[in-house]
Design a protein that fits this description.
By secondary structure, the chain is α+β, with helices and mostly antiparallel strands. The chain folds into three domains: about 10-195, Heat Shock Protein 90 (2-Layer Sandwich); about 205-330, 2-Layer Sandwich (Ribosomal Protein S5, domain 2); about 335-350 and about 400-600, 2-Layer Sandwich (formyl-coa transferase, domain 3), CATH 3.30.1540.20. The strands form six sheets. Strands 1, 2, 3, 4, 5, 6, 7, 8 and 9 form a nine-stranded mixed sheet that branches. It starts with 7 loop residues before the first helix and ends with a helix.
Length: about 600
Amino acid sequence: MPIRQLSEATVNRIAAGEVVERPASVVKELVENALDAGARKIDVMTDGGGRRLIRVTDDGEGMTRGDLALAVERHATSKLDGDDLLAIRTLGFRGEALPSIGSVARLTIVTRHASEPHAWTLTVDGGEKSEAKPAALNEGTRVEVLDLFYATPARLKFLKTDRSEAEAVRDVVRRLAMSRPDVAFTLAGEERAPVTWAAALPGGPGRLARLADVLGLEFRENAVEIRGEVHGVALEGYAALPTLTRANALGQYLFVNGRPVRDKLLVGAVRGAYADYLPRDRHPLVALFVTLDPREVDVNVHPAKTEVRFRDPGLVRSLLVRSLKEALAREGHRASTTGGTATIAAFRPVTLPGRANWDWRRSPSRPASRGYMPARGGGFAEAAQAAFEVGEPSADARVESFEPAAELIARPLGAARAQVHETYIVSQTKDGLVIVDQHAAHERLVYERLKAAIDKSGVARQILLIPEIVELDAADVGRLVERADELARFGLLIEAFGPGAVAVRETPSLLGEVNVRGLVCDLAEHMAEWDEALPLERRLLHVSATMACYGSVRAGRRLKPEEMNALLREMEATPNSGQCNHGRPTYVELKLTDIERLFGRR
């Protein structure tokens, strides 16, 4: 077959396949153009998930008639000062978005520049460009895209449902709105109620306010400020406490020089920073903004500009990991508000026997001076499972109570008042109470001791009088013996004992009496899931976490008052003590005002 030159229409449609994957891609390009034009207010309207209509209106500087005619030509852009592709200081720069969109849809642009007496409009229908004509528009630019992919029907088959495409558009606008809190955004369409994010004040408070508008108040209440800088690379943003997580990584919003990206390096750095706090099936919520010299990052490695390549990736990764770890350690005692909120929500009114119609809100003993309003509906939201409920007496409902030391109540975690079910410590603070999971809390304390001992001089060992023989599968034995040197750093000395067993001769003295068999079996299971790509540090953390779990105070153990207070004081002095090694909260704090609301005192 002879070589021939492709037609301009075909070339444009091939380019459109790289830039315009779905309606969300069109929205992304148009909104980025609006931001680069200096817009302070951007409205996005879609219909049919963007398949039938996409309209983006902004109040930016607009275009002159000459610029409008060039804007729909391939490789024409206002985003580059010269030919230096390393000095990219805008969001878009390829000069392919508008001609690519116009080649597969019906594109209409109406724009007005301050130097023009009136606005101009131009259309591109399936690649056919019209002449610019006078139009009416006060300021800025309005771009309409109708019947996306009508010129390439095969592409329509790959689009998802209108709802799915609308959700993808929403995600794009959310990310861009987070990157520019100084710009007001409105997102509307038949698939959703209109959403408006008002422009926020500059600086950290404004950014947090925009993040709260987009991600919800729950994120704001549990957000930790992140700041760091090294060798010209700056990091800012917010990360959620480890007790506020998601089942996937979609809640991680990462930006480089204001550009939303999905970069594997940055995602891996976030994962590494939270490795000490979260199980593998949970993911943190973060919104992080990396700023560096444009020459130190290549944003031209992907047509959609969602991936970047750093000149010094190790520097960027270390900055993220260190800054996140320092911030999380600094907020180690701050329990996630989700714990207290969920606890309050778990309370529900109880119907007492023979009092089916009795409403405790109308009790004569209820204070009348607190602005009492008649209850509507069912009162507190019904929870799936009540935390406390009057029922049959429980044989395990033992409460050990005693008077606290007055000076301890002023401490952050207060003074121990009781132990409930031989599992939970109830502590009184000056403005509420704290409920501590004794096993989870001590697990974190032991874990931090293990890490500190390893960093200093290694973990001290205790020799077993009689070595314990643990029978395992031959493959598990091989994995344990292969990593015997790593385990020895933690004070666990093992050696092969035939083809199907290992002999444990020494254990970490920090753990005291430990279930050796359970510990070794769990370590063998973890090692079966490791691969050589997993960093040694991560593997050692897995070992530490497993050992800490077996060396901590177990649930069901009755503690003395002095033991409980000693645990609380050590939690106050230990970093990261707000969560156990598996990401669960070690304590829940209830404010006195919340408790008073339960009993109608507020």
